[in-house]
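SEQUENCE AND FOLD
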Amino acid sequence: MSKDRIKELEEEVEELSIQLSDMLCVALLLAGVDEDKIEKALDLYVEELDDESVEYGVKEILANIENLKTKHGELFK
């Protein structure tokens, strides 16, 4: 694989990462996180992820958000 192609793929991955982060922000806001606490909520969400979890779908995302509400209710309205 050429260096140009590798660089192109790395840029695509970075763009997708940004889009996923934005989508998670939207999900957290819709779940009731105070807008001024969104960065803290994002950090805690990522920290709480189960590194050993193979599946990561809608149910797991919702469960992680519910877990965040339970453990860090102060972030929510």
